[in-house]
Amino acid sequence: MSPIRLIILGILLYIAYLLIKGGGKNMEDDDKSLDDDGSVDASDVLVEDPVCKKLVPKQQAVTAKNGNETVYFCSKECCNSYVSKKGAEQ
């Protein structure tokens, strides 16, 4: 066998090994978004803006308090619109 064929064969065997092994990714890495109790991390939760009905990641949302409830918005404009109509606190 020529040296080139040996190199190609080695590369193909290495690729097959990675495919069988899963590319070095552990199955435990898939559960990083879950908390200890199995619930989804709050950063991955989408909340709906009550004004324009857009879905926004909870961590990136603009918030306002309406009594004991926290209301989430996609932008300051939607928040201001909601506050002016409902009288909520920013």
Low-confidence stretches: none
- Number of discrete helical segments: 2
For the sheet with most strands, the description reads:
2 strands, antiparallel
Distance between the termini: 75 Å
What's the alpha carbon Rg, rounded to whole Å?
25 Å
Total domain modules:
2
**What's the overall geometry?**
rod-shaped
Spatially, the strands of the biggest sheet line up as 1-2
Mean pLDDT: 80
Order of helices and strands: HEEEEH
Determine the structural class based on helices, strands and strand pairing: alpha+beta
Q: What is the helix fraction of residues, given as a range? A: 25-40%
Tally of extended strands?
A: 4
Strand content: 15-25%
What report would you give on this structure?
The chain is an alpha+beta fold and 90 residues long. Helix content is 33%, strand content 18%. A two-stranded antiparallel sheet has the order 1-2. It has a two-stranded antiparallel sheet with strand order 3-4. The model has no long low-confidence stretch (mean pLDDT 80).
